[in-house]
Design a protein that fits this description.
2 domains, 7 helices, DNA binding, mainly alpha, 434 Repressor (Amino-terminal Domain), elongated, Cro/C1-type_HTH
Length: 140
């Protein structure tokens, strides 16, 4: 048996997705109508029956395939495109560049420009205040 091959530990995948969604075990347990100890047991299980997996996927707001195919590498793409997953032409959470509607770097540069403009307005406002106060002091 090769040690290079990782087992498909479904419980760890469920746990990681839950953590990424900033959900506590108690919250998942409540959504499943079960106890926190049961959720802990599920997350420590290497396998899970299909019916329970469907319930867990629904409670987490992801597809069963997304849990089964979950990896750290594709999780960023999956969660960034979460709302597009239902229409991803069967790709089920795998990054699909045709679904990108904007370039993140362009958005970041827009934010930088907006911040620069706001800063310039703030500096101008402070200059105006100083000018006004100087006029008031000269008038006395």
């Amino acid at each position: 048996m090769s040690t290079a091959i990782k087992p498909n530990h479904i419980g760890r995948k469920i746990s990681r997705i839950r953590e990424l969604k900033d959900m506590k075990q108690e919250a998942l347990a409540q959504a499943l109508g079960t106890s926190q100890q049961t959720v802990s047991s599920i997350e420590n299980s290497e396998t899970i029956d299909e019916e329970r997996l469907i319930e867990v996927a629904k409670a987490l707001g992801v597809s069963v395939e997304a849990i089964k195919n979950f990896t750290e590498e594709n999780m960023i793409s999956y969660f960034n495109n979460f709302y597009d997953n239902s229409t991803s032409n069967g790709m089920n959470g795998i990054f699909n560049p045709s679904h990108c509607s904007f370039n993140p770097l362009d958005k970041m540069m827009e934010m930088v420009d907006e911040n620069r403009k706001l800063y310039e307005r703030l500096v101008q406002s402070e200059k105006d205040k100083i000018e006004y106060l100087e006029k008031l002091l000269k008038g006395k």
